Amino acid sequence: MATKRMNAGFSDRVTALVKALRSETPDCVASGAVDMATGMLLSYETVDSHPAEVLDLLAGATLDLFQGRTVVMIEDVFKERRGVESDQHYFQEILVNSENLTHLFLRMNDQQDVVAVAVCRKSVNVGMLFAQARRVMREHGGL
């Protein structure tokens, strides 16, 4: 049974989103999109080459970050306390700083099971990163 995620139009849209994030987000060295339903990397672009295992681990880490057991429990508590009955996830964007890089993860609005990521040099202006990434997501139907 085919889903919206699997059809050619959606695949092209995800690929275009990843390309746009990579080229239009400031100081971006890599971008990608992860399917939260399967934990698979749907598309990516990077300035460096990386072993397939590393890319697979990134997809798994993104899944844990957004939908790990404890995160889902926190979302459920927030929804319950605030009287929210929607299936929409509570956490929509997450910013992670590592030693040398800044990673911005953004959940697609119209496809909650897809998270896009832009990986930038740590020197990036975080305000510009958010502004540009959100603009790209809006233009590609993600926000």
Account of the 3D structure:
The chain has 143 residues and is of the alpha+beta class. The chain has a single domain, classed as Dynein light chain 2a, cytoplasmic (Beta-Lactamase, 2-Layer Sandwich), CATH 3.30.450. 43% of the residues lie in helices and 24% in strands. It has a five-stranded antiparallel beta sheet, with helices on both faces. A hairpin with a 4-residue loop joins strand 1 and strand 2 (40-46). Mean pLDDT is 87; it is low at 1-5.
Brief rundown of the structure:
Helices cover 43% and strands 24% of the residues.
In the CATH classification, which architecture applies? 2-Layer Sandwich
Counted by DSSP, the helix tally is: 4
Number of DSSP E strands: 5
Describe the sheet with the most strands. 5 strands, antiparallel
Q: What percent of residues are in strands?
A: 15-25%
CATH topology: Beta-Lactamase
Write the layout of secondary structure elements.
Layout: H1 8-24, E1 28-35, E2 40-46, H2 52-67, H3 69-82, E3 93-97, E4 101-107, E5 114-121, H4 126-139
Antiparallel strand pairs: 1-2, 1-5, 3-4, 4-5
Helix pairs in contact: 1-4, 2-3
Key features?
single chain; 143 residues; alpha+beta; Beta-Lactamase; 5-stranded antiparallel β-sheet; 43% helix; globular; disordered N terminus; Roadblock/LC7 domain-containing protein
